[in-house]
Amino acid sequence: EVPLQASGGGLVQPGGSLRLSCAASGFTFSDYAMNWIRQAPGKGVEWVSRINFDGTRTNYADSVKGRFTISRDNAKNTLYLQMDSLKPEDTAVYYCEGPMRGQGTQVTVSS
Questions:
Q1: pLDDT averaged over every residue in the chain
Q2: Which of 20, 72, 78, 109 could share a disulfide with 8, CB 3.0–4.6 Å?
Q3: Would you say residue 66 has pLDDT above 90?
Q4: Kindly report the CA angle at 96 between 21 and 50, in degrees rounded to 5?
Q5: End-to-end CA, the chain
């Protein structure tokens, strides 16, 4: 069983939207702040967004502020990332991260 499994990635045109999900298992999800991070081809890991344990506080990298929205459903042990107005520079593998880093999902923004 994978503790954190991201899904929802894919190919989307510039200006489009995607919603990523991250299913958590094997630990008490509601005890942890969670993050989304990403890694573009040939680049280092970039922090994208953070949400506190109960979803009342969120933070965003300047590069995604106003376009991405992080949320969580502790009853479903699931973390989300709504991505709107996507740009080619958002192309990356996206990972959710809490007490550990999960498996990623590829997001490609291209016409």
A1: 96
A2: 20
A3: yes
A4: 100
A5: 36
Q: Output the DSSP codes for 10-48.
A: EEE-TT--EEEEEEE-SS-GGGS-EEEEEE-TTS-EEEE
In angstroms, rounded to a whole number, what is the distance separating the alpha carbons of residues 6 and 35? 12
Sorted by sequence, the CB contacts under 8 Å of residue 1 that are 6+ apart come out as 25, 26
The answer for residues whose C-beta is within 8 angstroms of residue 24's C-beta and 6 or more apart is: 3, 4, 77, 78, 79, 96, 98
Whether 1 has a pLDDT exceeding 90, the answer reads no
- How far apart (Å, rounded) are the C-alpha atoms in residues 57 and 70? 10
pLDDT of 37 reads: 98
What is the Cα 104 distance to its own chain's centre?
9
pLDDT of 2 reads 77
Report which secondary-structure segment, H or E, holds 108: strand 105-109
- Percent of the residues in the chain that have a pLDDT greater than 70, as a whole number: 99
